[in-house]
Design goal:
Radius of gyration: 17 Å
Strand content: under 5%
Largest sheet: none
Helix content: over 70%
Distance between the termini: 50 Å
Shape: flat
Number of strands: 0
Number of helices: 3
Order of helices and strands: HHH
Length: about 80
């Protein structure tokens, strides 16, 4: 039961930062003002990096492994 509470406690800040990042990305795409675009892009990147702090470790491991698998598949396909 305690493990479920820990996961829920981790998912709340994760979902909040991902929502903020999503809104910032939307603003970055839809606005025409340069300063707003830069501020939104910086906010989105910052939120996405902060959200990595709250992600459970299996997902962090998956994020780390996926680029290596993609590179290996590209090497095999190029032969």
């Amino acid at each position: 039961m305690a493990e479920k509470v820990e996961v829920i406690i981790m998912l709340i800040p994760l979902s909040m930062t991902l929502m903020i990042a999503s809104v910032a990305i939307y603003l970055c795409v839809k606005t025409t003002e340069e300063i707003v675009k830069v501020a939104a892009a910086i906010t989105a990147l910052l939120c996405l990096f902060v959200s990595l702090f709250f992600v459970p470790w299996p997902i962090k491991l998956l994020i780390l492994i996926v680029p290596f698998i993609i590179e290996k598949l590209q090497r095999v396909a190029s032969r």
